[in-house]
Amino acid sequence: MITIQNVSKTYGKNKVKALDNINLEVRDGEIFGFLGPNGAGKTTTIKLITGILNMDEGSILVNGIDVNKNPIEAKKQIGYVPDNPEIFNRLTGLEYLNFIGDVFEMDSKERAEKIMELAEEFEIKSALKESISSYSHGMKQKLVLIGALMHNPPVWILDEPMVGLDPKSAFTLKKMMRQHADSGKTVFFSTHVMEVAEKVCDRIGIIKGGRIIFVGTVEELKERKNDESLENIFLELIENE
Ligand SMILES: Nc1ncnc2c1ncn2[C@@H]1O[C@H](COP(=O)(O)OP(=O)(O)OP(=O)(O)O)[C@@H](O)[C@H]1O
Fold first, then answer.
1. What is the pLDDT of residues 25-44, one digit of tens each?
2. So what's the ipTM on this one?
């Protein structure tokens, strides 16, 4: 579960708040999709939840742990995939994953099993001994995903996770997200793709100009707007609200 309470964030000396007093609860057992136009505040929100940035006001709890007061324990709850999979190019895939295993203090047997299981799921096993510099964007994305998920974190936070994935890998990831949520855990992800939001999410949140303008199910949004196409509703919402 993620609880965001009265959170605001301004970058440097900017006059405009990147996040303006946002409140949001992402529940156990759900896939929550976070939508909004470019520059709305999605990545900023994600960077505050993961402790990469500090908020100016408010608080964020991850499974009840305050990310400001107890950052290490909060981070242990989280598997995070950033929007840009630029990672240590000089390492091989396996060296990178072992480094992550060290950070999370995984024992060697559990680590090896988890790496092989996930590498097989994402069909990247044969490339693990290659240098990351030779990987395609999609392969780097898969490696970052494996690194984020291998320590069995209860809360998955994925920033545009499907970008660069081939259809089969995107399908695999969506299946894993569903299984994770169905086991009572939390998946929070940002996306620009309406079809993904509609098919995958239990609830969605829409952010615009640093303010949350909708939280609920896609069905509730459609009922409210009396329209069938999520894309039309989304475009209307971000223009008018
Ligand atoms: N490092 C930064 N320094 C200054 N302003 C920033 C920085 N990062 C983001 N911003 C500003 O904060 C606001 C929110 O940006 P953010 O990256 O959170 O949006 P986003 O919803 O993730 O957008 P996108 O869909 O384009 O990735 C924007 O106005 C952006 O210009």
1. 999 999 999 999 999 999 99
2. 0.97
Residue nearest to atom 12 of ligand 1 (CA): 18
Radius of gyration of the chain (CA): 18
Ligand 1 atom 26 nearest Cα: 38
- Ligand 1, CB cutoff 6 Å, lining residues: 11-12, 14, 18, 36, 38-44
Q: Whose CA is nearest to atom 7 of ligand 1?
A: 11
- Over residues 157-213, the pLDDT tens digits come to 999 999 888 999 899 999 999 999 999 999 999 998 888 888 999 999 999 999 999
Could you identify the atom of ligand 1 that is nearest to the CA of residue 47?
18
Domains of the chain and CATH, by start: 2-20+29-38+47-86+153-239 (3.40.50.300)
Compute the half-sphere exposure of residue 78: CA atoms within 13 Å on the CB side of its CA: 27
User: Within 13 Å of residue 153, how many CA atoms lie on the same side as its CB?
Assistant: 31
